[in-house]
Amino acid sequence: MTMTATTVGAYLRDLPPDRRVAMARVCSMIRRSARGVRESMRYGLAFYELDGPLFALESGRRHMSLFVAEQDVVLKHREALPGVDSKRSYIRFSDLNRLPLDVVEKIVRDSVAARRTRVQAGSVPTQAELLKLWAIKEEKAEAPAAVTKALLAPPPVKKTVVKKAQKRR
């Protein structure tokens, strides 16, 4: 799925209805639970940042993924969630009804607390490190190039048409 949205709201509007509701609920829960995060679109993903990327949310063809920058937090909660990939630090889910949002909310809150601790310690991962952890290739994930259409001049009016029009008057 090629996404060209520049805001998370536009990203959600472009999703199929079944995923739009699920993704909107997760986005809303992140905004509510992680006060102070900044929302943006990059690499075709909804990013949530607090002193650097903290979460990224993606809608695939058959699944949705929540990437979490704080890998220790994901490891702490991996038993409570199906679809956790602790090596790549993300949660993959295909159906919101099967995703325990209360556990995801704990992950969000714990991630914010862990990030604030890391900021004080000066050990915040860079975006490049997180993209590597999440196995997102920068060149593959770049936003698609803007589509521009050449404006064509209208075809010239034939002189015979103009002359006929003048004769009628």
Q: Could you characterize the architecture of this molecule?
A:
With 169 residues, the protein is of the alpha+beta class. It has a single domain, classed as Aspartate Aminotransferase, domain 1 (Alpha-Beta Complex), CATH 3.90.1150.200. It has helices at 8-14, 17-33, 71-77, 101-121, 127-133, 138-141, 159-168; strands at residues 38-42, 45-49, 53-59, 64-68, 84-85, 90-93. The chain has a six-stranded antiparallel sheet. A hairpin with a 4-residue loop joins strand 5 (84-85) and strand 6. Mean pLDDT is 82; it is low at 140-151.
Précis, in short:
This protein has helices at residues 8-14, 17-33, 71-77, 101-121, 127-133, 138-141, 159-168, and strands spanning 38-42, 45-49, 53-59, 64-68, 84-85, 90-93.
Sketch the major β-sheet.
6 strands, antiparallel
Order of helices and strands: HHEEEEHEEHHHH
Which ranges are low-confidence, i.e. pLDDT below 50, for 5 or more consecutive residues?
140-151
Under the CATH scheme, the architecture is Alpha-Beta Complex
